[in-house]
Amino acid sequence: KREVVLWEQQWISCAKELNQWQQLSEFAQKGDHNNLLVDCLWKVSDWHTLKERVLRVQMENTPKVMMVQGYLHLHEGQVIEGDQCINHGIQRALHRWWQLPDIAARSHLPLLSLFQQLVELQESTRVLLELGMVQQQQQHHSYSELKDILETWRLRTPNFWDSLGQWHDLFQWRNHIHNIVISAFKTFQDQPHHMHQIGYRDKAWSINKLASIARKQNLHSLSLDVLKTLYGYYQMEVQEAFVKIREQVLACLNIPGELVSALNLINTTNLEFFPQQHKAEMFRLKASIYQKLNNSEQAHSNFSTSLSIDPSLADGWFSWGSYCEDVYEAHGNITYLEYAASCYLQAIKIDTKLAKKLMSKFLLWLSFDNTSSGDIVGRVYDKYGKGVPSSVWLPYVSQLICSLQRPEAARAKDLLFKLVQAFPQSVYYSLRTFLLDRREGSPLSRHQQYSSRSQQGDASKQKHRGAARDWGFGHIPTVAEAFAAGKQVMEVLRSEWALMIHELETFIHEIGTKFVPTPEERLLAVVHALLQRCYKYSSAPLNAEVPSMLKRELTQICKACFSSETVTKHETFVKQYKDDFWKDLNPDVEHSNFPKSLGELIKCLKSWKSRLESSIAKKGCNVLKLEKESTALQHMVFENIEIPGYRQSRQISTQEEPVYVEGVLSDIDIVQRYGSSHRRITLLGSNGEKFTFLIQSGLGPSTSCDERVMSLLHAFNSVLEENAETRRRATKFFTPAIISLWPQITLVEDHESFIIFME
């Protein structure tokens, strides 16, 4: 029985989403579901049955029932009684609202929706009163309140990801009021002609909007049903007629077997009454239909016609480019790659919102498809890329900097020059770390020299075996060439923004030198990492011998943790830990106590972890003071520094003013996470907000990879935000700002609303 009840609930929920109110009312009458029946009858305009059910059956006076009684009274013209029911419903809804917790949650959403319906019911009483007054006086009237209410209804709509049942509850009653307005104006003979259109216009807009939301929620058949059944009049304005046809075609494009009917609809439409932009959109839709029908010639012809009518139609360029991309992916025709790249650039020039979808794809082509196709994408960019705003490249700064060591380095450098002029601080942090990573004597530079020598040796061997295979990647710049290109960009940045760079350098130097972990904390992080490394050998028994690779790593780690630099800077730490650590964990030391098995190594590392944790805990210092750690940062006057990573992490538009740093709060927290210790700094923004950052340090390479991952997650989030199902569930990747200050030191945004379970 419980399973049957569950199936019934799920079926009712699905039927509500699909607006199958007639079937629901029949089910409610047979099953004696009075509350469901009351909710269905007013939506199918069965007012007689509703009156019998509501007034003669004993039902709890919930806010929903009181609202339906208000619907019934207003339908019968009883404005005073209807207003009383509405007021009682509002009082009962407020009483339920006070019972909810103060923290906003999903439990508040149904009541918020109910409040909107009750408010619109109150506004409906004012509409009916105004129409009644005009009917009695029979004189010219401005209808200012009627116009204001109908205009407010256009602006006050639910979110596009809200359930379709919520949309239908609002728009069904609005549709009823629009019918009353249309009928009333038919009896008013002395009113101007444009006033007679007010009901038709708003009714058509509401139905088109409801159909659009149904289509965006992938209910395409329902969208067509709404457009065909709810309007009921032959009279409609040109603008709304265009929207209706467009919605019908877009719905048919996603329904199998409806493509021919969509094509017939466009062919039978008289386009003479439409403006140029609407005509161009009709031909674009026609081309999309032919694309679905695999008619390449007609698709190209209609795309061309569309853009010849209106060259500023961004959707036209985007659709044509998408079609050319599909042909290129299917057949590998390089010409279509050129067409797709040029169409996408034209679309971005007209509408920069399309850059979120297209710039990552263009960068991919520039990196991988360009050299193998004879630099076609690069030449397209040289020809059509001049009018593209530099702001569209801002989310991809880290990718462009990494491209300095790829075949597309020349064009990446040109793009960085443009970004430096407009957004210097967004480029500076990543570019500075890139140069420090590749300066002479750095690990990357030494690795490049070693690999180049080995490649020369392989090339000399290859001469005896035949020519080496050309992989088609073109010339790949060396580390030295990438460093030179990045240095040129940095020189332009320093010459243009000298004062700002000086201020940034002071800020970066103080953070990178004064807020790093102590030697004990670094050693604890190393021990924690070694434990995780041992746990990866899950298939090996505990009595197995320590792997030789792990032994070599332990030897290198012992030398790195107690290097000559550490010995000179931290003598007390070295005296306290070096001999014991080397004796326990360095296999190359004579008379050492190095563990003989993997299980003994894990026990040894756990004992070291406990020893270090207790030593750190004895110090009992969880908060540092800025005035003791960095007087320079305390007295620093911030004038030009933006909140690091604010523009990228918030994805704000380029027209918005950035948030500048006003100061640094005095408390510097010490945070323990994942076996590592970090300092947490709080910056005060010019907008009054506080921005907290973790100062992370490590022994690995720079975090340009993390920056690129955040850029990828931002792209994922833009897709999730456009989908109704994921947006309704608030599904989103957490994308904190990650700013690389030094090759091994980064600022990571640490928002208070995100916390791990261990804390």
Structure write-up:
- This protein has 759 residues and is mainly alpha-helical.
- The chain is 65% helix and 6% strand.
- The chain contains 36 helices and seven strands.
- Helix 15 packs parallel to helix 17 and helix 18 (334-350) runs parallel beside helix 20.
- The longest helix has 29 residues, at 109-137.
- It is globular.
- Mean pLDDT is 86; it is low at 459-472.
Task: From the structure above, extract its key features.
mainly alpha, 759 residues, 7 strands
Low-confidence stretches: 459-472
Kindly name the structural category: mainly alpha
Number of helices: 36
Helical amount among residues, as a percent range?
55-70%
- What is the number of strand segments? 7
Main pleated sheet: 7 strands, antiparallel
What is this structure's SSE topology?
Blueprint: H1 2-17, H2 21-31, H3 34-41, H4 47-56, H5 63-75, H6 79-99, H7 109-137, H8 144-155, H9 164-187, H10 193-196, H11 198-216, H12 220-229, H13 238-252, H14 259-267, H15 276-292, H16 296-309, H17 314-331, H18 334-350, H19 355-369, H20 376-384, H21 397-402, H22 409-422, H23 424-438, H24 443-465, H25 479-496, H26 498-514, H27 519-535, H28 548-561, H29 564-569, H30 571-585, H31 598-619, E1 623-625, H32 626-629, H33 631-634, H34 646-650, E2 661-664, E3 667-673, E4 676-685, E5 690-697, H35 704-722, H36 724-728, E6 738-742, E7 745-749
Antiparallel strand pairs: 1-3, 2-4, 3-4, 4-5, 5-7, 6-7
Helix pairs in contact: 2-3, 3-4, 4-5, 5-6, 5-7, 6-7, 7-8, 7-9, 9-11, 11-12, 11-13, 12-13, 13-14, 13-15, 14-15, 15-16, 15-17, 16-17, 17-18, 18-20, 22-23, 22-25, 23-25, 27-31
